[in-house]
Amino acid sequence: MATILNAERFRWADDYESLCMMFVLDRAERELIAAFGGDPQLIRLYRSSEALKLLSPEYLYQPIVRVGRAGPSVFTTEVLSVEGGRTEVLRRASAGTRAVSVMRSGNAMVHFAYAEDGEVVTGFEAGTPEQRGGTDPDRLVPNLARVGLLGDRSRLGGRLATCLLLAAEVLGITFDAADFRKPLPGAPVLPLLPTPLVPETDRARAQLIGSPFVSAAVAGAADEHLWPAVRGLASRMLTMADLLGDRDLGDALHRDGNEEPSILRDDEALGMRIRVLIAEGTGAESSGEVSLRRSAGLSTEERQRRLRRRAAAMAVHAALVLPPRSAMYALLHLRQRAAWPSPPELDLSYLPEPPPSEVERQAALFGDLHSGARTRVVKAPASRPSGPRPQRR
Questions:
Q1: Exposed, middle or buried by CB within 10 Å (0-12, 13-18, 19+), for 179?
Q2: Sign of torsion, CA 282 287 289 292?
Q3: Would you list the domain boundaries of the chain?
Q4: What is the pLDDT along the chain (393 residues), one digit of tens a residue?
Q5: Which of 139, 179, 211, 336 is the most buried (most CB within 10 A)?
Q6: What gap in Å lies between CA 45 and CA 24, rounded to an integer?
């Protein structure tokens, strides 16, 4: 029987209900803070108790990320937030090197991810390590076996401790509780732009829309018809979020350009504006949590307003960076997610009427879900957004 490595030296980590750590080889601390979306100029020493703060005085979601050194690697620690577990952060942090992320969130699930040169190579949830994703999911199979995550797991210790052992095994590093608990340099971070959420399967997309006819119209439309419908829905979200007059957001939707999805950088003006609006919305959600003892700071009305603004900003982001069909599904998801007084209306007048066979196919995806009440439709808009897909300059 192969020898299984002992994770006892990392058992201290299992005392934390929520913990996120990232380990990156050959990276400077300031570079790693910047990869998370923080300003290196704001770095100062933080005790572990000081790093529990998630919100700025303005209720902007800005978690504190601390950094330290463990041999050839730089590591980050977060106790309440899990920014280091995000794919967007892991890609930036691993550019030109190797990185591992280990996190346990409040739902007790433990996630492990390994990245090289800006790509997530493999990742899994520790309870089901045989279900792996990434560009090369089986790359670390021998390592998983050595720490006891594959095969007979009867001798497996805590999942978080075991995944930290795996991180040490993969990167060839050593660290202990003292490295983590001592005062460390850190900074508040403004979270990076999220990857827009798009339902992956036809059935999930059909159920999201809630109407076989509308689902068939969206599924069968060409990009040239979908784009004005996407822009119209995003504009309605901006209007309902009182953001239509926002120059960065409004101009981006209506700027002339080609029909290809464009790249939005986190540090450009529009990217920063969207990041701030998302952080305001996330802060509004967090401000209502009893555990943060900040619920009295924002009224229910203000929290709902911030949630609408977050959804509208994310809609603009999706409209700019995704192909039109994916953008439409992302927007339809967002229209269900925010605290809208009524769902923003989807204008079908831009889309050709789908053939009956496609409507029947979409209806079959629903099973017993045949209600169209979840998708409001406008047949004749007062004015149509026109022109090709915008490209920011």
A1: middle
A2: positive
A3: 8-188, 202-378
A4: 345 677 788 888 888 888 999 999 999 999 999 999 999 999 999 998 888 888 888 889 999 999 999 888 899 999 889 999 999 999 999 999 999 999 998 767 899 999 999 999 999 999 899 999 999 999 999 999 999 898 766 555 578 999 999 999 999 988 888 888 899 999 999 999 999 999 888 888 887 888 889 999 999 999 999 999 999 999 999 999 999 889 889 888 887 654 678 889 999 999 999 999 999 999 988 765 534 444 457 888 999 999 999 999 999 999 999 999 999 999 999 988 778 988 898 888 999 999 999 888 888 887 644 444 344 444 333 333 344 444 443
A5: 211
A6: 20
Question: What φ, ψ does residue 155 adopt, rounded to 5°?
Answer: -95, 5
Q: Which two tokens stand for residue 244?
A: 């239509």
| Amino acid letter for position 263 | I
**Tokens representing 22?**
């990232």
Q: Can you tell me the distance from the alpha carbon of 205 to that of 175, in angstroms, rounded to the nearest whole number?
A: 45
